[in-house]
Design brief:
single chain, 426 residues, UDP-N-acetylmuramoyl-L-alanine:D-glutamate ligase, Protein-Tyrosine Phosphatase, Chain A, 15 helices, 40% helix
Amino acid sequence: MLHTVQEAVDWIEKWDKFSIKLGLERMERLMEALDHPERHSRVIHIAGTNGKGSTATYISSMLREAGYTIGMFTSPALTRFNDRISVNGAVISDEDLLKTVNLVYEAVESLEGTECGAPTEFEVMTAIALVYFARFAACDFVIMEVGLGGRHDSTNVVLPIIGAITNIGTDHVMQLGPTIKDIAREKAGIMKSSMPTVTGAYGEALTVIEEAAKEKHAKLYRLGREFRIENIEPLADGEQFTFISPFKTYEALQISMFGSHQVHNAAVALMVVEYLHYYFALDLSEEDIRKGLKKAKWPGRFEILSHDPLVILDGAHNLEAMQALVETVQKHFPKRHVKVLFAAVKDKDHRALLNTLSELTQDITLTSFENPRAISADALKTYLPNARLEADWRKAYEALRNNLAENELLIVTGSLYFVSEIKRLD
């Protein structure tokens, strides 16, 4: 029995944080020992390389606008430990976290001596989330975001009512495979027999997802096929677009997140909500949809931290996300001189990330931050020799922010973990 929330957090964090143990054996044992909490929630399961959190937020915001209670399990935590588990936007309280940890404590500890081995921290957090939603939260729907991949991810013990696969890009290739097809196959692993799935994937990735849907006899809704978007227009405070599905057409929808990639995420989310509306008889109006989309915000993804001076946070940590960041800046702030503060973790394609950033600006400062996975500023400079170097990220950030001219903007990017440090500082 643990007695304080700090004891609970310390206990969670004692489990392996950084290595990845793919497979569901440990989770299946945990679920059985905990009386199968994964069977007690109506789950919407979301996989993809980028856009999972944004898509989850759009779905949650629309359903909440209609009066439904929505649980969410996302990662990583951006500002505090409890962030990963929330209900209607309110993160799990310290009291409920402690109560839930004590419910899973014995079952988790018992795994260590089995042939399955000790669980990872993410597996423990997944179990905590499922127990919390089953025992304490009384949610109408629970949105579960995949941690890594899909097929072997700890969240894949759930039995969803619908799934979504956002885009597919080249990230985590050491764990998921070197090609887009390999990665897509892992993401498509969230599909269950006859489970409807919505996807924003395209090209080779979509072909793999289509094959998986056929094998599972699952209805597939594809962006650009069964539903589509038109008339994308940048706004001062987001984007506007038209959405067309088999069920309805919505003109001049608006979102407050920036970038055409966020329009794609919003479209995937709306297709999920439309399916639930028509096949699960959800009481959901067009006004709920419009307000929900407009209100949705997801921290750390093209987040305007400050307007004067203009500071933008974006945890772009892979090539596709960085390309989206560059495109969005060029579209929304074409006349601004861009300055960048960049830090990253080790297992990324730093050359590709920095080369992409260099298409936007040459005014790049490289730094590092306090994280066991962070790459040093010196190591980053080997990929971009002409960049400025500042080992102390706090000093670098404060100097850049405090000296921004009226026609300049500062982008902090490279890692969500780094962005979270900036948010704590600010």
